Structures are given as C-alpha cells and as structure tokens.
Amino acid sequence: MRSRTRVLPWSWLVVSMLLLPGCAAAPRNAAGVVRTYYVAADEVDWDYAPGGADGITGRPFGAIAAHYMEPGPGRVGRVWHKAIYREYTDSTFRTLKPRPPEWAHLGILGPLIRAGVGDTIVVLFRNNASFPASMHPHGVFYQKDSEGAPYHDGTSGADVADDAVPTGGTHRYVWPVPERAGPTAHEGSSAFWMYHSHVDDQADVAAGLIGPMIITARGAARADGTPKDVDRELVVGFLEFDENNSPFFDANYARYAKPLPKAPKPPADTVFGVLVQGPAMESSFRETMNGFSYGNLPGLTMKQGERVRWYLMATTDFEFHAPHWHGNVVTIADMRTDVASLTPMEMVTADMVPDNPGTWLFHCHVAPHLRMGMQALYTVLPKVAMR
Ligand SMILES: [Cu+2]
Questions:
Q1: How far does residue 320's CA lie from ligand 1's centre (Å)?
Q2: How far is Cα 120 from Cα 117, in angstroms, rounded to an integer?
Q3: What is the DSSP string of 62-75?
Q4: 232-242 and 308-314 beta bridge pairing
Q5: Cα(317) to centroid of ligand 1, in Å?
Q6: What gap in Å lies between CA 369 and CA 311, rounded to an integer?
Q7: 374 CA → ligand 1 middle, Å
Q8: pLDDT tens-place string over residues 158-182
Q9: Distance between Cα 108 and ligand 1 center (Å)
Q10: Is residue 329 part of a domain?
Q11: 297 in any annotated domain
C-alpha cells in the first residue's frame, strides 16, 4: 500500500505535483483554485408532487396520475423514503447550506458542483444513509482513490477507501479539472457533467443519489464560477426512478401501500433482469423532472431576451427521453430545435434566448413518460419596455 498525500488549498500546480507525481499527462495550471464542497448522503421522505394536484391541468390528479401519485392497494403513492445528496456549510455537517432561489428547481438533485478549467474540486463526503454510498464523477479527472466505484481493478488500501463509504463514514474526493473536462472550442462556455453514487449503481441512483456538475471554460467565468456570457442557468434531470430497485422498496411498500385484496403479496419476479416486487412494479416507476411529476417542478423562470442555458441529464435506467419545449426554441450543438434527446446518463447543453413570454409546457415526448408525469411548466417573464 502506498501512502497518499492529501491536497492542499493552493494552486493546481501544487495539486498536480502532489497527486500526480511523474505523470507526463498530468494536467497542470498555476491559476486554478480549489473549490471545496461538503456533501452528505441523507435520508429523507421525498414527495414527487408536493402540490398534491396536477399542475399541468390545474386540477386534481386524473385516473392515470392518481395511480402513481396516490397510495392504493399495492401502490405507494407520491411520498417515498429516499437518499439524496445535500450540501452542508462545513466539515461538521451540522448546517445545511441554503439553496438560493434561482436553484430551487434542482429539487431532488444533489448540490450543483461548479468549477472552471484549471481548478480542483474537493468534496468531503459524509454518508448518513443506511447503506454504503459513494460519489462517482463524470468528466473530471480522478485517480483510483477518488473514483467512487468498486470493481476488480487491482487496487487496494487507500485506493479503495472511496469505493463504498460505509454508513457514518467520510471520504475526501479530489477531482482536478483539466481542459478535457471543459467545453470544446465548438461548444458554449460551459460543459455539463454529473456525479452519482456507484457502489450499486442502479440501486443507489434509484434511491436518489445523483447530482449535477458544471465546468466553465478557462477565463469564461465570473468570480462566482458562472459563465460570463450566460444570464440564467437551469438544470433539469429527466429522471426515471424505478423505486423497485431502491434499497428502501420494502420499507416504503410496508409503510405506504394499502393492503392488496388478496394476501399474501405475490412473489418477486424479474423484468429485464431486475428483481421486482409483484403488483407494485409498474406503479413504482416515477417519471420525473428533478424528482417532480405532473407539473410540480417549481422555479423554471427566466426573462425574455435573456441568454438562458439549459443543462439536461438522465438517470441510469432503461430509458430514453425527448425533452420538448413549447413556445421557444434552443440551440444544441449548433443545431436549432425544440426537442432534445437523452439516453441513459446522457448530458446535454441547450442554449435559449426566449422571445416568447408566457407559461409554457416543458415535457418528455416519450408517450408513456408523458402519461406517467414527466411534465413541467417554465415561465418567460416579459421584458419591461424601455423608454
Ligand atoms: Cu422520457
């Protein structure tokens, strides 16, 4: 076992020297800063429709929506016990960091981790969940002690301490941000990534452990890390949560579902190679945007004429999505459209300059997902006329 040297809050040059000795490919940049985040996996009771009604129709849940959102025989309804990432103010993990109003729409997603090319991200992770969890990042650089995924890779000792942080445990993940984590010259000024728990990838994400990460190009960020040429950023995960795969399924079923007319519960079965729990299987899928279904996602607001950047992502299920904006158009990879596409865990950046004020539908165009509640509203406030 070789000893590890921990990162110091200096420049990335120092970080590179400490963490990547002798590595010719090591990215280095003297101008970068260390951005530290305190993130815990916490267990919460999550409400997929806190408004208690269908925000798209403006009415009580219809028959299909009620099937998913209201408890019934063998059905859990809209509240499920879950595990989610939450940000704290410091290493004591006593005080939650308030989420600013412009990011209220993140919902079930973990804290926004943001950095610029040349920076180093340090995450002190505390696992308050009742099962082993980790933080596995996409896009940024990591060595084996910061990958957050256990598999037979020949490592040991400190290099596996990140793999599965036990309940009550803490791990420091160090993620340098090289050029390849930022946008290419043909993209906009920021690139979109994500992080999620990867101990048992499917179960961990089904539980809710997933979050967003934005990397701004070198020299393209304001002091707070936001891209200078963007007025409003929005992150929307088209997140399918298969609660059958959550480690809390049995507890949720026992706590919330009403008894089936015929006991006992039918035996578990498999669908696509996954164990499922009988009658609750289909009604336990949640088609959400940031953890909200049927128009319950709040805070997707912007002003007419603003430079708006949407960051879209999906989860790890057997899923694909077709996010569609009504009322306005976007540019994705230099192509103008109003429908994006997302495969599992795909990350997409879409730029919009809304010219059409109003409250508009934003939904997945995959018909079953539409029916199962993958719908939200976004609002473009009219530009105030200048005299
Ligand atoms: Cu979809």
A1: 6
A2: 8
A3: -HHHHHHHS-BBTB
A4: parallel
A5: 11
A6: 20
A7: 7
A8: 999 899 999 999 999 999 999 999 9
A9: 17
A10: yes
A11: yes
